Amino acid sequence: MVRPADSLAERAGAAVDLARRAATAYGRPDLVERLLTVRARLDDPRVRVLVVGEFKQGKSSLVNAVLGLEVCPIDDDIATAVPTSVQWAPDLAVTLVGRTDDAGSVQRRSVPPEDLPAWVTEAGDARDRDGLALVEVGLPATLLEGGLALVDTPGVGGLGSVHSAVTVATLPLADAVIFVSDAASELTEPELAFLSTVAGLCRRVLLVTTKTDLHPEWRKVHELDGIHLADAGLDVEQAAVSSALRELAIESDDRAVNAESGFPDLIRWLRDTVAGAAECDDAVAAADVVTDVAAQLSAQLGAERAAVADPARAAELVAALERAEADTDRARLAGSRWQQVLADGYADASSDIDRDLRLRLRELAASGETAIDALDPATGWAEFEPWLYQQVAAAAAEHLTARHGRLQAWIDDVAGAFGGDDAAAGLVVERDAAELLAGTGRDASLEAKRMRLGSQVFSLLRNSYSGIAMFGALGGIAGLVLSAPATVGIGLLLGGKGLREEKVRQLAQRRAQAKVSVRSYLEAVTFSLTNEQRDTLRATQRTVRDHFSARATEVHRTAAAALAAAKSAKGTDDADRGSRLAYLDGELAKVAVVADRAAALRRDAVEAVS
Amino acid sequence: VTTPLIDRVLTLVDTARAAADGQAAVAAELDAVAARLREPLRVAIAGTVKAGKSTLLNALVGEVLAPTDAGECTRVVTWYREGIGYRATVVPAGGGPAVPAPIHRGDGGVEVDLGGRRAQDVDRIEVEWPAAALRTTTFIDTPGLHSLSGLGARTASFLAPDDDRPTEADAVIYLTRHLHGQDVRFLEAFHDRTGARSTPVNAIAVLSRADEIGGGRPDSLQSAARIAERYRGDPTFRRYCQTVVPVAGLLAEAAASLTEAEYRALGRLAQLDDAAADALLASADRFVDPDAPSGLALEERRHLLGRMGVFGVRLGRDLLRHGHADNARRLAEELRRRSGLDELRRLLATAFTARRDLLKANAALVALADILRRCSVPGGEQLRSELERIQAGAHELAELRVLTAVRAGEVVLTDAEVTEVERVLGPGDAAARAGVAGGGDAALREAVLDGVQRWRSRAENPLSSPAVVAASQVVTRTLESLLADELRGGHAVLA
Fold this sequence. Notes:
Chain A is α/β, with parallel strands linked by helices. Helices cover 66% and strands 9% of the residues of chain A.
């Protein structure tokens, strides 16, 4: 009996363990393997929370204040330059994580904790940071024990930075986002624009007004921001904090000050809303796997029971199961429909994503050239350059958002094909057995099951993704380099008739040079994004293929086991029939308990999250 | 003795005006150019929403004129001019006569009644006010950029009109809380090398709300000074602004109009022991907690907080507690000095006010060239060639161009040479510009002769690029005139 006090995670763990015992008992090591993976995920949850916002708004201070520790370097002037993930570890440790290299591997290197500021802030040498995607800081903080990782990101508005695009790219992988804006001012137009991108890509977003200790009118700013959010139709929660008061509260161990700092509410949000929701998601995923396992076990037992119960129809049943066995066997092979959809989808998604990128950058190149035609690169270059960076960052962010949607559609297609045709054979085994078992059949709705297939894969992807590839992809693009020094003599500026023609000629030359520079820069951007995209697509394809191959193998084994059981049941003596039936009914009832528990868990988890 | 540049420009504009007598529209434009030449320098204050523009304007004027609020507050471009009386006029958008508007003056500044018009329908408000600070300078407050209301677009079109006309401001103070991509983009848009808009000569950046940097810690202002120092060296900023200074606007505003009652209230806070004061001033909310033991009435605390902010109250209390001020006037002086306002005023005096004639003349020439290009005026060809003669011949304008080109990095010089060019062509007296401030006539002469020799040989070096030659010649001539001015006609010294 489940006690109400048990958490969803505990109940999920118990359900998985129960299913594992059953799968062991019925000789299904493959199902045991899958359940162990689920169990490992339940035991080591990861909840990734991104802290984003304009720079110098107090993001690093917020991360430190949440933990009550000075982890992220704080400086009045120097800003964070590299994303810093703060997560649990038994001892303080700082690990540099490099970008995915050409061979697809990621370099990791431990450095002394005291070197952290040199690596993550603008104070360090930018060249050293080249190739650095993320810095992981592990430390034994109680709050992080549940798997919470707080990721401090560089501000999005820095000079000519592509940070905003990088941040956007990682959003779909985050469990939640904290958007930081200080109480000095209500949201600005660029802030709200970024916030709506964030809200579109991440389910849980919290707008935190910081520095409330310093601004007497913070309540008004907070309220105005609420109005702006409502006007923009954004579903974003709000909080207000003071890192200074939190620090004071910890120093003086003062509960009242702590409450005033607003951090208890923020921590509660992290623990209950974010971590709680992640726990629900994990519980739903676990319940789905347990349901799936129970269905396969009951199909296996059900086939035998049907054969034992009605020997007259046993031959018919065996013939049906033989067909199912053959169908499910085919589903494992390369020619199966889901494999085709996967392969075709790879090509389609790849070309769609390529086209999207090319179109966006072509448009950008065109407007860049128009802009160059309207200026003299000798004098206007410094103005043009940051504009171009900004445009590239915006285009990349839009592109990555579109790509995210495209990948999801691809996965859904594969799941649809798998649930629709191929593995339907396997599903049919379950359904037929259920029909044959009139009365004991559960509601194994094919449609619901199909729908779950896609989301299962996506959560699998989310969990396997480190997010590093995303952080690393854009950081590697070198800056724009003007191909030739564009200086001009004062003599020319002062004018003079004889120089006029020469002036015109030189201007045309400067513009041509500038256009070449822009084109080669955009090519570098395309190259970098295309490389990263190829890696992401391959990783996705691999994950999807492994997942569905394993599922196909499982259903095939189920079909084979059902067939074997039905065949052997044919020879059952009348004398043994009664006891065998009683045994099988008992076993089926046990599996039904497992299935019921999973169904109840799923119901409760879905309810808890909404 | 040559006629001063400003007088030559005035004569030229007046001649054009006389020629255009029959054309009402052109005459009106030329009248405006002439009037602008004669009136005080127009300094616009621009920046991101909530950067503290109105607060800084109040501090510079020394009175609470521009209203401020926690939300977006300045919604219309507002001119503050010197006047004999107190009055305001509203200029409707899209033309139409200016209409007088009723004003109401409360604690929070001068509220102008727009008479039911929406902010979008008003081109600008002009407030006339009898204040000493407005005698030499007309200040223009602008709506914040990047606000959600979209009113910042008005500021952009005011300072950088789409049709490439010269802007109506002679100089700009650009406020920013941090050096930010958006700030730079705005400065670019406003930047223009012809001098019609912003140049590194007529724009100054202010690192505003300096007291809030680092969470209002006691050393916030030092921290702000360090950040400003770094920005001064940043090539991006150097292209667009003469310099960057930190200013704690709220502190400056309070200092500029500190009352005896405020001084006494701070005095009572100074009597609290440090532990009690720290607890009270840990946050804005704590300071105005009705039950907090403070020795001050709640209303007094609210008033102080609104006037000075958390940092200002902390600093004011500290100054009194450590005996740095024994009366309201001294306290105001201390606060003002620390706020950075004195430094900003000094900078405005040397960089803008001292160059008033040059900035005015340059802006008028650009405006006149624009009018002559667009409209046909009798004798236009002659007027144009006189205009070109002035533009090419005036040494002040050549200096302006060299300074702009050097700051933009278009003239390849060593760092030491860049510093020297900026000093020699920069503001200040002859000794300061020669780099021997306080050194006496002999030192001045020696420094100038040395400089003249170096720059002359730079100009004569066959390896120098045309740009360097031109710049060197301008610097040489400026150095010579420094000595000449200082020694009153002592050209013989150089012979």
